[in-house]
Specification:
The complex is a heterodimer of chains A (191) and B (145). Chain A has 191 residues and is an alpha/beta fold. Chain A contains four helices and eight strands. Chain B has two domains: 72 residues, Serine Threonine Protein Phosphatase 5, Tetratricopeptide repeat (Alpha Horseshoe), CATH 1.25.40; 52 residues, no CATH class. Chain B is elongated, with a radius of gyration of 19 Å. Classes of the chains: A alpha/beta (191), B mainly alpha (145).
């Protein structure tokens, strides 16, 4: 009987010893309310508004006042392209292929940031058109208000026909990523 | 060859068709070029009108359909753009720009499965590495439940 008790005690001690230490300074469950702060750069205000919408949709409790929140979401609009021109060449172009042969491409489209590809084309058709789309890149971070601890940070970019559509996808992706790190509170008591 | 033989009849029809089609196709080509000229000047509504005429006069012209689709997209006429671009890939199934434009339109209209298909076709056909990376990002986004 004593031997069994000793084995149980040893097992208990070993089990306790294997537990990972929990950081005392931060517990993601402490984040109950989130405030959306300022987003620097062009289009920052629109991005902040879109974040409020996405956070509410994701189930976060969003407060107007930063003082009433546990954490604040801020960020920067790194890239704001309301009309990004893409060149469409109407006809057949020949591009060099990695295996030293060439590839024929019908009606190629080339991005404004892709000059090397355009130069690499052996023969681009003379007939050109411009296709316009919008692009956005946002970096966001969540900080604890009391301690200033950085709780989460990430960035995302997207292209769409319009800037609001691109902003919607960018903020949605970031909010989904945030939700994986910071659990959405099941209930919040008023304070 | 006897004049009543079927081969003679087919030949006559072909020549008559070519003679008949010639003025219309010339006119369509004129409207097509006029449309492209307006597009280059940034006069998109005029370009749209010209390219609509070009496409109506030459409904089997994949290039006119593509040009109409691109201009219609710029004007925000997404239904017209979708129809024109779908017509362009029916006539020219390897038209790279058509898949790019269509993918963007399908995404805007929340037609995610069609958008995914168009992005995959674009990645398979395009030679622009940056745009292919962009397309992969769209595929990842649309593939996320």
């Amino acid at each position: 009987m004593k031997q069994t008790q000793l084995i149980c005690l040893l097992f208990l001690l070993v089990s306790c010893a294997q537990q990972k230490p929990v950081k005392a300074e931060y517990n993601s469950n402490q984040v109950k309310r989130v405030a959306v702060g300022s987003f620097e750069g062009q289009g920052g205000t629109a991005v902040a508004h879109e974040f409020v919408k996405q956070l509410l949709n994701a189930g976060f409790v969003v407060t107007e006042q930063t003082a009433a929140a546990d954490a604040v979401l801020t960020g920067v609009v790194n890239d704001y392209r309301p009309s990004d021109n893409l060149l469409i060449f109407i006809g057949t172009a020949t591009f060099p292929a990695p295996n030293a042969q060439s590839v024929e491409v019908i009606n190629p489209i080339i991005g404004s940031a892709s000059p090397t590809t355009a130069v690499a084309a052996l023969g681009l058709p003379k007939v050109q058109m411009v296709s316009v789309c919008a692009g956005l890149e946002v970096s966001a971070k969540l900080s604890a208000i009391k301690t200033g601890t950085l709780l989460w940070a990430n960035s995302a970019s997207y292209e769409s026909l319009t800037l609001p559509a691109a902003a919607q996808v960018v903020t949605q992706e970031l909010t989904q990523n945030l939700r994986k790190k910071i659990p959405v509170p099941t209930s919040v008591t008023s304070s | 060859m006897r004049l009543s033989s079927p081969l003679w009849s087919i030949g006559c029809l072909f020549v008559a068709g070519a003679i008949y089609a010639s003025p219309a196709s010339t006119l369509a080509q004129q409207h097509f070029l006029q449309g492209l000229a307006y597009e280059r000047l940034g006069r998109i509504p005029e370009a749209y009108a010209e390219l609509q005429l070009a496409s109506a006069l030459s409904p089997l012209d994949a290039q006119a359909a593509l040009a109409l689709g691109v201009v219609a997209t710029r004007l925000g006429k997404l239904d017209a753009a979708q129809r024109a671009l779908e017509q362009s890939i029916t006539l020219e199934p390897n038209s790279v720009a058509s898949y790019f434009q269509l993918a963007m339109i399908y995404e805007s209209k929340k037609m995610n499965e069609r958008a995914l298909d168009s992005w995959h076709r674009f990645v398979g056909l395009s030679q622009d590495d940056l745009l292919k990376q962009e397309a992969q990002k769209h595929i990842r986004h649309l593939g996320t439940p």
